[in-house]
Design brief:
Elements (H helix, E strand, L loop, with lengths): L30 E3 L8 H16 L1 E5 L5 H15 L3 H4 L13 E3 L4 E2 L8 E7 L12 H5 L1 H26 L6 H5 L9 E7 L4 H6 L3 E6 L5 E5 L6 E4 L5 E3 L7 E5 L1 H6 L9 E4 L10 E8 L13 H5 L5 H9 L7 H13 L3 E2 L10 E4 L2 E4 L4
Parallel strand pairs: 1-2, 4-14
Antiparallel strand pairs: 2-11, 3-5, 5-6, 6-13, 7-12, 8-11, 8-13, 9-10, 9-12, 15-16
Helix pairs in contact: 1-5
The chain binds 2-oxoglutaric acid and fe (ii) ion (FE2).
Length: about 375
């Protein structure tokens, strides 16, 4: 009888670091308890709780997502094991930034501004598991753990993303499925699950770049989910333009709205500026492993504002604009076009923004859509 050889690679195990003992200036983020979503009146209650967060802050945290600690740990172990592989293996499927294609491995190759310091983060972006992406190349390790990554990828969408889009629609008095349809898991989009690791830098090197591991920016798609982790480094710019740290919420997911959701709501939903800084001194030697889901608009979704009565009532949109937006669908920039162009603009270069002589007022534009390139 032939013997079956188990060829599944062994995973390294990732252990969460202790939280910082420093008292940092934490951002007061609203916590949205998704366990209430399916209870009677729950969606309305959550929509009320979320309203100011999406409008003023663009950041909030969700808890009780139905994603278990065990599922999360497995994903972190897979991500950690991936990054510990030889560079040649990781580069087998690389992002093609000349096409604005973010799927695959991104090596930390760019220099920061005009310093001689290289970026300190690596990432792997995994496209959705739908027929449209079936022929997309995937690393051997990702293939080996397909049975876990594939359901996890969809679970994040079903358990968290879909619910948040329903809440946004309720806030804007739109049909509940309005944003769900425009970001559906089963339709093509540049969505990806991301494993990301930041490597510690020496104090001397960090001093040369002002301790900024990632410059202030808004995210390119509709929404970003960051599975909360213990190393403090993420900061958001508050409505009063102060930088505040994002606190670890065990088992929670920190969410932020991003540019295309802001376009779809004419700026009502805030695409918040955030950055990544050198961690506090008691965490500075740790590797910082992150698990994310980046939500992009559907490839063919027109970037026109939703005909929401709230937008009209609150002066974001005139009644004529609301009608016109529907008619202009055919000419409007589509999700794929916008996201690809933005990724290309940011990443198809050898230096990261900041002190690279381009000024701070630079904007990125595709037809009528415009965002500041970056923030210092
Ligand atoms: O590492 C983080 O906490 C945030 C990363 C981030 O902002 C991004 O990759 O867009
Ligand atoms: Fe970001």
């Amino acid at each position: 009888m032939p013997t079956l050889i188990n060829t599944t690679p062994r995973l390294l195990s990732w252990t969460e670091h202790p939280v910082t003992t420093e008292s940092l200036d934490w951002a007061p983020l609203v916590i949205i308890d998704l366990a209430k979503f399916d209870q009677p009146g729950g969606k309305q209650e959550l929509a009320n709780e979320l309203k100011d967060a999406v409008k003023l802050w663009g950041f909030w945290t969700v808890i009780n997502t139905g994603i278990s600690q065990e599922q999360l740990s497995r994903q972190l172990d897979i991500g950690y094991t991936f990054f510990k592989q030889p560079l040649a293996e990781k580069k087998k499927v690389s992002c093609d930034f000349s096409e604005g294609n973010y799927f695959g491995y991104r090596e930390p190759y760019r220099l920061i501004g005009n310093s001689n310091i290289k970026e300190n983060m690596e990432m792997l972006n995994i496209p959705k598991y739908t027929p449209h992406y079936e022929s997309h190349p995937r690393h051997a390790l990702v293939q080996a753990f397909k049975d876990e990554i594939e359901p996890f990828h969809r679970l994040v969408w079903t358990n968290v993303i879909r619910k948040l889009f329903v809440l946004f629609a309720i806030i804007l008095e739109l049909p509940e499925e309005y944003f769900v349809e425009r970001h559906h898991y089963d339709k093509p989009s540049e969505d990806h699950l991301r494993y990301m690791i930041y490597h510690p830098r020496s104090a001397e090197e960090d001093a040369k770049i002002g301790g900024q591991w990632s410059a202030g920016h808004t995210d390119f798609g509709s929404m970003t989910l960051l599975f909360s982790q213990s190393v403090a480094a993420l900061q958001i710019r508050t409505p009063s333009n102060e930088w505040k740290w994002v606190k670890h919420v065990p088992g929670g997911i920190t969410c932020n709205a991003a540019d295309t959701l802001s376009f779809l709501t004419k700026g009502y939903i805030k695409s918040t500026i955030h950055r990544v800084m050198r961690p506090p001194v008691d965490q500075v030697d740790y590797e910082r492993l992150g698990l994310f889901y980046f939500v992009r608009p559907g490839d063919s979704v027109p970037m026109v504002p939703a005909p929401s009565p709230v937008l009209v009532r609150e002066g974001y949109l005139s009644e004529d604009e609301a009608k016109l937006a529907e008619e202009q669908n055919a000419d409007a920039v589509k999700g794929f076009e916008y996201v690809r162009a933005r990724v290309k603009n940011v990443h198809n270069r050898n230096t990261r923004h900041v002190n690279d002589g381009r000024g701070t007022k630079e904007v990125f534009r595709v037809k009528n859509l415009e965002v500041p390139d970056f923030y210092v």
